[in-house]
Fold this protein.
Amino acid sequence: MSEKKALRVLIVDDYDMTRTLLRIILRGQNFEVVGDATDGQMAVEMCQRLKPDIMLLDVVMPKMNGLDVLAKLKAMSGAPLVLMVTSSEEEKVVSQAMQLGASGYILKPFNTASVIETLNEARERFILRSAASVSRTAANS
């Protein structure tokens, strides 16, 4: 087994093929897919229950769009790092997601290399965030 801990990933997209492709890409890449959701409401519920490290979050979905989900998650303690998955190249949507706290984004149609590269960058941010959290906890003790 790899020395790196497999990070837990929740995939959120209303399109079955996108969820399936992301699951296939992550297989063997030291990421554990802990679940997938088809709408924003389900995403929030599953995030609270499954506590993923990273969420791959579609922007356009039924019940609650990805930007609304992101805003809800950021209000929760222990929220995962969020990577937006979008077919929109509109600067406004990407900019709004980043302002709401997204850690990055993956543009559709995506390829394996870009998804893995983006997730590995997120892994580094997760490790740094976790280390900072441990340091703050130790300093407050």
